[in-house]
Design goal:
The chain is 33% helix and 28% strand. The chain is α/β, with parallel strands linked by helices. It folds into 3 domains: 3-121 and 228-315, Periplasmic binding protein-like II (D-Maltodextrin-Binding Protein, domain 2, 3-Layer(aba) Sandwich), CATH 3.40.190.10; 129-224, D-Maltodextrin-Binding Protein, domain 2, CATH 3.40.190.10; 324-412, Cupredoxins -  blue copper proteins (Immunoglobulin-like).
């Protein structure tokens, strides 16, 4: 081997080693509350992605210990792997995409979603899970993926379903694209060395590829819908039936963790190595959008992940609260808006909602007031934050407390 080749080989090995260290630091090992005789251990199978961090933050903040729970984590590479592990009684609870949950349920694996987790965002600009290519790639549009190979973390999983559905919606035949399964942590190297033409990957791997000069070609989730549902926590039915009290305590702790993560994004970022703290974060919520979940299930059936629709009552029990996501925006051009599915809000039904606030101004903020609600962002600070709120019948107003005094209003019926 020549000296140049030896140096390149060493650099490649160092690169892979550094990546693996990053993954272990971020997501590996056992993340548990302080040991105590009074804590009950729950074995949770999870994934090496940033979306799983609210549970780690909740453990750190003591939310699980307060409920008498010690979490023992096992790291796997895909939701399908987690469903298979749970089918073999390995793990009590699994953090999985909704599509693997549907696959498991329709294939006779008795699992039930017990808590929500996150949604995708609204566009390529803010989404945390996209199709990426190298900066030098000739692929510029979804149509350019025809005949190309795209890496997914699993076949017949959430990735294949949403990518195929988004391609079709964009006018591209999904059968004209090849798919290859590989773990998320290896995708960056595979893309760099030309093993694949594109990758579908979440954070923190997406930002790492961007740092290499990579580009986003498509955000599949936002193509299908704003704040499209992605994943949650599921458990085996026998565990649910045998541990009703423990289940309620886990749900309380994870829901508190999701809500806290949304309102304290800097604390989520602090769990990451300094080099990747500026990644895009997911929109976490204890609520699920059942209308969009049904759309996802129909896509899963259309693209062969499932042969029949799951029983939604059994898979998504009523104790998981439903709700829509509102988008609040404060712009540097002194505008303040509140939208649902891209349309200005004038009237809403009473119930629970997520409010995703994108405050881009240092002179204005977003302030929402009405029956039972008085929440605001900071005037001098640019920030992204998500609130989970209950809207009651009556009049609501949103405004800026800063220089522009822009405002709007809507009614809840």
């Amino acid at each position: 081997m020549t000296t140049g080749r030896r140096h390149r080989s060493r650099r490649r090995l160092a690169y892979v080693a550094a990546l693996l260290v990053t993954i272990v630091v971020c997501f590996g090992g056992t993340a548990a509350s302080a040991p105590s005789q009074s804590l009950t251990t729950i074995n949770v199978n999870t994934l090496p992605i940033a979306n799983a961090l609210p549970m780690d933050l909740g453990i750190q903040k003591g939310f699980f210990a307060t409920q008498g729970i010690e979490v023992k984590k096992t790291l796997l590479q895909s939701g399908n792997d987690i469903v298979l592990a749970m089918a073999n009684s390995k793990g009590d609870i699994g953090y999985i995409g909704y599509v693997p949950a549907m696959i498991g349920r329709t294939q006779g694996i008795p699992i039930t979603v017990i808590a929500a987790s996150e949604t995708e965002a609204t566009s390529e600009a803010d989404n945390w899970q996209n199709i990426m290519v190298k900066g030098s790639s000739s692929i510029r549009t979804p149509g350019d993926l025809v005949g190309k190979t795209v890496a997914l973390n699993a076949l017949k999983g959430v990735g294949e379903v949403v990518v195929k559905a988004a391609l079709a919606k964009s006018g591209v035949d999904p059968n004209s694209v090849k798919f290859l399964a590989m773990p998320f942590p290896t995708m960056r190297t595979a893309l760099a060395n030309g093993q694949v033409d594109a990758v579908w990957t979440p954070e923190p791997f997406m930002s790492q590829i961007i740092s290499d000069g990579g580009r986003i070609v498509m955000a599949p989730g936002p193509v299908l819908g704003r704040y499209f549902p992605n994943g949650g926590y599921a458990a085996r039915n026998d565990w649910v039936q045998s541990n009703p009290s423990l289940l309620a305590k886990f749900r309380a702790a994870i829901n508190q963790s999701l809500t806290y993560a949304n309102t304290h994004p800097d604390e989520v970022r602090a769990l990451l190595p300094a080099a990747i703290r500026n990644i895009r974060l997911a929109n976490w919520s204890p609520l699920i959008d059942r209308v969009q979940l049904l759309k996802l299930a129909r896509y899963a059936k259309q693209y062969g992940a499932i042969s029949t629709l799951p029983n939604f009552t059994q898979l998504f029990p009523s104790y998981i609260e439903g709700g829509k996501t509102l988008q609040a925006t404060v712009g540097s051009g002194s505008f303040v808006t509140l939208r649902l599915d891209g349309k200005k809000v004038n009237e809403l039904k009473a119930g629970k909602y997520n409010v995703v606030v994108n405050d881009k101004s240092t002179r204005d903020n977003f302030h929402l007031r009405g029956p039972g609600v008085d929440k605001s962002t900071s005037v001098p600070k640019r920030q992204g934050i998500t609130w989970t709120i209950s809207l009651k019948k009556g009049a609501y107003a949103y405004t800026s407390d800063g220089s522009s005094k822009r405002k709007g209003s809507f009614r809840v019926t």
